[in-house]
C-alpha cells in the first residue's frame, strides 16, 4: 500500500478546521438537548474520529452506542444495500437518538438508518454529519447538524477510508484523480 503522501492531491480541511467546526456543533447540540439524555450513535467505522471529537466536547448527559454499517465495501460507488456489521447494544424505543456520521454521499446509509431507528420506536432521530456531498445525493436525508459541504471529490482521512486504509490521517485530503481512475470498481 502506498505512502499517504503519494496518493493525496491536496489537503481539503486541516485538523484544526475540522476540530473547531465540530466544537461549534457540540455547543449547539448541548443547547438543543438541554434536559435530555440522548443516545449518541457512532456509525462505524467512518464516523470514529468525528464521534470522538464531538462527544469529548459535549457537556450534557448522554449515552454512547455504536453501529457498524457498510454500503461501499472496498469500491468507489455505493452499492445501495446496507450491511449491518455490528448492531447497537441499546433498545432505542422511546429514546432521543443523535446519529453521528462522517459523510453523506448518496444518502443511502443514513436514509436506511433513520428509517430503521424509527421502526425501532425512537422518540426522536437527528443527524450530525461532518461532511455533505450534495452532488451525489439520491436518497433524501435531513441533516440537522453538518460540518462542511464539499464538492464531488474522493476524500479520505479523519475516519474516511480509501480501500479501508488511511482512516488515521488527522486531516481530510483529496485522493489524486489518477489513483481514482486507475481503480477498477
Ligand atoms: C461510508 C461513509 C458513510 C457512507 C456514506 O461508509 O462512512 O457511512 O459510506 O455513503 P452513502 O451516503 O452513499 O451511503 P462505508 O460504507 O464506506 O463504511 P465505513 O464507514 O466502514 O468506511
Ligand atoms: Mn461509514
Ligand atoms: Mg468506507
UniProtKB/TrEMBL annotation:
Q: What would be one Gene Ontology cellular-component term for the protein?
A: cytosol
Q: Where in the cell is it found?
A: Cytoplasm
- Tell me which InterPro entries the record gives: HGPRT, Hxn_phspho_trans, PRTase-like, PRTase_dom
Q: Which GO terms describe its molecular function?
A: guanine phosphoribosyltransferase activity; hypoxanthine phosphoribosyltransferase activity; magnesium ion binding; nucleotide binding
Q: Which reaction does it catalyse?
A: GMP + diphosphate = guanine + 5-phospho-alpha-D-ribose 1-diphosphate; IMP + diphosphate = hypoxanthine + 5-phospho-alpha-D-ribose 1-diphosphate
Q: What is its EC number?
A: 2.4.2.8
Q: In which pathway is this protein known to take part? A: Purine metabolism; IMP biosynthesis via salvage pathway; IMP from hypoxanthine: step 1/1; Purine metabolism; GMP biosynthesis via salvage pathway; GMP from guanine: step 1/1
Q: Which domain of life is it from?
A: Bacteria
Give the cofactors, semicolon-separated: Mg(2+)
Q: Where is the Phosphoribosyltransferase domain?
A: 13-162
Tell me the protein family, please.
Answer: Belongs to the purine/pyrimidine phosphoribosyltransferase family.
Put simply, this protein is called: Hypoxanthine phosphoribosyltransferase
* Provenance organism: Bifidobacterium magnum
